[in-house]
Structure of ArsR family transcriptional regulator:
Amino acid sequence: MSDSASVREDSVLDCDDCISPAEAFGIVADETRLTILEALWESPDRPIPFSELRRRVGVDDSARFNYHLGKLRGQFVRKTDEGYDFRHAGEKVVRAVLAGTFNEDPVLPAFPAPGSCVACGGSLEADYGDEKLTISCADCARVHAHEEFPPGGLEGRSSEALLSAFDQRVRHLHCLAADGVCPECGGTTSTALSRDADPFDLEVVVTHRCAQCAYEAVSPVGLVLLDESTVLGFLSSRGEDVCGTPFWRFPWVVGDEALTVVSEEPWRIRVRIDADDEHLVVELDGDLSVVDSAVEPIERIP
């Protein structure tokens, strides 16, 4: 990883006062400093005066407490006339701890998931490990969803609530990445189509990649259409609940049968979405912008 002081010439960030990633991790790698951040987080009223913050942290030595608070001040904590409050980086550290990112590695054995396999019609099941939730077919093992999900998100949720949260999280994160904003760091993401479809058994997938933090998300092409107005209008007018149905239950999202590669140079992809006696055909370019769409009747074989 490059030093944070190294930025592109066209960046709006002047990083003369930035600290390196190693230094930043070193600052918070101290129990007293983490306790200070936790005390700020747990306080219903901020800013907190110095003496009150020291009392909540439980450090009797004022000089020692001031030393550790001073290490946090500037990058993780800010001082105001009323006391001390978070900076964004300080909140992110506490959120990462609460999410279990640093200190939890739970594993959930397979449990039933709603829907049926787009390949064989078998039952779906979900499992959790390595901070990823996977939904696949119990019979043929075809993967329908495979995404990161913070360990803290498992806390206090039933399997049904977990799958609902997973569905919403995947939708929103990929929507943000497709709009050019990294869900992790806020940096700029690029979008590309690829035939390197691992772990999905698909002809083509979408890859969103952040130029700043190297965040990467891989998804089926159809996932980007879940918030496309043309698609929403077509399905909602025919009684389909797009928002209330898990994305992996839509064959045009997770299956290949509805997708046609028209060309690769440049990329042109057609996705067919069936509803009632009609289907919507949406054509996408390499940036996943809709370049054409049409509603056509479904031809039935007598």
Remarks:
- The longest strand covers residues 108-116.
- The first helix runs from residue 21 to 28.
